[in-house]
Structures are given as C-alpha cells and as structure tokens.
Amino acid sequence: MPAGCWLTVPVTDANFTDDPVDVPDPSTLTYEQARDELVRVVGRLEAGGEPLEVSLALWERGEALAARCQQWLDGARERLAAAQAASGGSPAGSSPDDVEEEP
Question: Are 73 and 34 in contact (CB under 8 A)?
Fold first, then answer.
C-alpha cells in the first residue's frame, strides 16, 4: 500500500454496517489511539464471522495501524537514545537489548 494511503473500514461494533465508514488516517493518530484501534481490529478478526471483503479491509487497516505504532515506538527509541547520549549515558543507537545482564 502506498505511503499516506488509508482505508475506510468499520472498526467498532457500534458503527458496523455492511458499508465502510470513514475513519481517521493512521498518520494522524497518537500511539494510544492507533494501539487501541488495532486491538479492536484484531479482536474482530479473531472473532471471525466477517464477510471476506470486510476481513480483508480490517487486515489492511490493522497493518496500517501497526505501522503507525511502530513509527511512534521508533521515534521514542531515537529520542531516548539522544537523551542518553546528551547526558553521558549509553551511546546513541544502543538499546536496553544491547546491554548484557550479569547472572
């Protein structure tokens, strides 16, 4: 899917109809908004029972929401690395996963 492209799918039982409804472009969502909507989308997919076209649209919406969450997480990681580097902490680009724990 091209960058900046977004889908219109129903995301809650309250607004579900056979016709999609407009939902916000994922690029405009906060991390929490994207995460919460992703949880609802996954729940609907796991519950099953949706027509194939709706399931596909939900899957695509979920992919876009997951990508948005990853953007937020990547940005947060970069900010933390920059703050650590500025304060003399671990070098920029390292993460807690890079640190070995002692037994």
Answer: no
Rounding to the nearest 10 degrees, give the CA dihedral for residues 23, 29, 35, 37.
-10
pTM greater than 0.85: no
CB-based contacts of 24, cutoff 8 Å, min separation 6: 6, 33
Task: For residue range 11-20, list pLDDT tens digits in order.
Answer: 444 434 434 4
Is 2 part of any domain?
A: no
Confidence of residue 50 (pLDDT cuts 50, 70, 90): very high
The total domain count for the chain is 1
Tell me which residue range forms the domain holding 60. Answer: 13-89
Q: Are 26 and 67 in contact (CB under 8 A)?
A: yes
CB contact at 8 A, 84 and 98: no
Residue among 38, 37, 59 at smallest CA distance from 48: 59
